[in-house]
């Protein structure tokens, strides 16, 4: 009886849990071609006592409903969990072009009715055969074969409409300093075996920060000019124009290995059974240039405006206002919001002359998103008052151009007041004495009487210091000791400057990292190879120019390289290698030949940096 009651309790608990969380969904493709077969599936996480499908207008039913179910029950620590799934699948053929809406299906569970979501399916006219678009996959091998040279065999070419790339921007007219979100997108009606030789634009005239973009694993179906394409985003980024006028984004290009159909008359029934054969060819595609109109900012800018554009908040705060002389005070200025934060420079603050001041510590924390560059920039000023009194720091102002109101806005800290009390050590000077005086001791008999009798003086023995051999050994020892001290001081001085140490060792470390990449190349470890080439190049730039890893950015590299007599062409060459490596880490396999070319290019560009570098 006890077991029966327990079973009834479990059963009631299961039904209570299910009734509280019923999920009933419909799924199917968004786009199909006329004549294409597709599937619509209804899924519910409970056992229905009744199921009624909607009316499927515009489609020809070729099968279904096909029913399936799965159940799992867990009883842990008195808690019951049951996962139940019931599915109903229907198979159709699209018969006529148009956009069709499928009404919700209806299911009944424990006497209650539930409706699924509706579906909208677009049917487009049938175009060329496109396994890439129909399967939604970025790579699906099929029967790959080389042309045999038979006169009945014809290889179709990949036209410009079969595969292409575009640079899409969210707007083409902006203010100077206003963000643009750019998307590099791939479109293909053919299967793509691999992607090679990616060439990003230089984006001259723009500040660029990449948006974190997932690796392209699968293409999504999309209708372009009535044709179904497999599409995928290669990279998204935020661009900020630096100057007013007409600015052009140069084309993006790549080379892809695509599969084109191999057309010929069937020689046997097996040709039709296995389907059409394909051949792999290389296809280079480039996007069209994109023109951006950049408007100049209004001319009535306040004197405190330094180029910030966007939407910001401004806070300036002292960590303490009542201190004693020689106490350290921290003035923290934080600017947060959405915009070109990196152009904001340290403030020219009029500190009292009695204060000892230092250059500010700058902290930047930004992230590129579809909304722009978001984050904050903080300036921390360390100040030390040397005399007592009440001191006033004039208001610190921050002005930016607000894109919503199209006006300049100014935020002010207000006057900052610091009360400094006199400390015990104010005005004191610390004296360091190099030699201490010694006390004079009275010995009692420190003066001897003069002896008046005749003295007989004679040499008792020779002193060791008079020995020439001893003198020579002593001189050599002093020389060795002096050389040791000189070497040690130079070694300490050389290693005390971290920047110079990194500069001196940058090439050696880069060569070591590239050696690791070469080992990956020989082992055909493609992802690790590109990762180590990226580490080698970025690490080299960081060490050579003493740029912290957190501040590494492309515009910073161009700026610092110019100061050391390194041409823009050499930096462009490095950036192309970096772009190729970043893209190839997630692209399909490209082979050792391509990797060898990248490795040699990385070695060459580091060599060019070394040859042209001037301190």
Features:
single chain, 615 residues, alpha+beta, Immunoglobulin-like, 5 domains, seven-stranded mixed sheet, extended
Detailed description of the structure:
It is a single chain. With 615 residues, the protein is α+β, with helices and mostly antiparallel strands. It has 5 domains: 2-126, Sandwich (Immunoglobulin-like); 132-295, Immunoglobulin-like, CATH 2.60.40; 312-421, Immunoglobulin-like; 467-496; 498-612, Four Helix Bundle (Hemerythrin (Met), subunit A), CATH 1.20.120. 25% of the residues lie in helices and 38% in strands. It contains 9 helices and 32 strands. Strands 23, 25, 26, 27, 28, 30 and 31 form a 7-stranded mixed sheet that branches. A hairpin with a 2-residue loop joins strand 5 and strand 6. Helix 5 runs antiparallel to helix 9 and helix 6 packs antiparallel against helix 8 (568-584). The longest helix has 29 residues, at 468-496. The termini are far apart. Mean pLDDT is 77; it is low at 133-154 and 429-447.
């Amino acid at each position: 009886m006890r077991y029966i009651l327990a079973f009834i309790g479990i059963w009631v608990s299961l039904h209570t849990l299910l009734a509280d969380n019923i999920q009933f969904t419909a799924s199917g493709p968004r786009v199909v071609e006329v004549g294409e077969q597709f599937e619509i599936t209804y899924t519910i996480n409970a056992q229905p006592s009744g199921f009624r499908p909607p009316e499927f207008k515009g489609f020809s039913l070729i099968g279904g409903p096909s029913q399936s179910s799965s159940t799992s029950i867990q009883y842990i620590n008195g808690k019951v969990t049951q996962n139940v799934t019931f599915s109903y699948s229907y198979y159709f053929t699209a018969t006529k072009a148009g956009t069709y809406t499928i009404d919700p299906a209806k299911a009944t569970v424990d006497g209650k009715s539930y409706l699924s979501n509706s579906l909208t399916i677009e049917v487009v006219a049938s175009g060329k055969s496109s396994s890439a678009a129909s399967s939604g996959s970025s790579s699906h091998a099929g029967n790959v074969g080389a042309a045999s040279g038979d006169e009945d065999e014809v290889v179709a070419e990949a036209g410009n409409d079969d595969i292409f790339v575009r640079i899409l921007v969210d707007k083409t007219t902006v203010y100077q300093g206003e963000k643009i979100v750019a998307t590099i997108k791939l479109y293909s009606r053919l299967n793509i075996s691999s992607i090679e030789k990616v060439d990003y634009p230089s984006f001259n005239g723009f500040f660029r920060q990449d948006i974190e973009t997932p690796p392209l694993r699968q293409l999504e179906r999309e209708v372009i000019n009535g044709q179904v394409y497999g599409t995928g985003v290669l990279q998204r980024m935020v661009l900020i124009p630096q100057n007013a006028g007409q600015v052009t984004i140069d084309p993006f290009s790549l080379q892809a290995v695509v599969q084109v159909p191999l057309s010929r008359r069937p020689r046997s029934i097996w040709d039709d059974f296995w389907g059409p054969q394909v051949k792999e060819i290389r296809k280079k595609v480039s996007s069209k240039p994109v023109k951006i109109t950049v408007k100049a900012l209004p001319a009535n800018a306040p004197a405190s405006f330094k180029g910030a554009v966007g939407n910001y908040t401004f806070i300036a705060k002292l960590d303490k206002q009542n201190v004693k002389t020689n106490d350290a005070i921290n003035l923290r200025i934080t600017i947060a919001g959405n915009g070109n934060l990196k152009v904001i420079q340290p403030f020219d603050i009029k500190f009292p002359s009695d204060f000892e001041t230092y250059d500010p510590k700058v902290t930047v924390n930004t992230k590129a998103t579809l909304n722009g560059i978001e984050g904050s920039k903080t300036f921390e000023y360390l100040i030390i008052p040397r005399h007592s009194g009440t001191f006033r720091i004039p208001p610190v102002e921050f002005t930016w151009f607000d894109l919503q109101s199209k006006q300049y806005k100014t935020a002010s800290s207000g006057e900052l007041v610091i009360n400094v009390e006199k400390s015990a050590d104010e005005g004191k000077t610390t004296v360091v004495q190099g030699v201490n005086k010694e006390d004079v001791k009275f010995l009692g008999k420190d003066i001897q009487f003069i002896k008046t009798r005749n003295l007989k003086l004679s040499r008792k023995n020779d002193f060791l210091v008079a020995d020439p051999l001893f003198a020579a050994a002593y001189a050599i020892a002093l020389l060795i000791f002096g050389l040791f001290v000189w070497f040690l001081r130079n070694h300490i001085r050389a290693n005390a400057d971290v920047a110079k140490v990194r500069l001196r060792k940058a090439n050696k470390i880069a060569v070591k990292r590239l050696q690791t990449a070469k080992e990956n190349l020989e082992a055909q470890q493609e992802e690790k190879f590109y990762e180590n080439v990226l580490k080698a190049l970025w690490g080299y730039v960081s060490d050579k120019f003493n740029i912290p890893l957190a501040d590494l950015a492309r515009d910073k590299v161009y700026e610092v390289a110019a100061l050391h007599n390194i041409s823009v062409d050499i930096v462009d060459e490095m950036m192309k290698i970096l772009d190729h490596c970043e893209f190839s880490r997630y692209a399909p396999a490209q082979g050792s030949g391509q990797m060898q070319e990248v490795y040699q290019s990385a070695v060459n560009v580091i060599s060019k940096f070394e040859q042209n570098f001037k301190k």
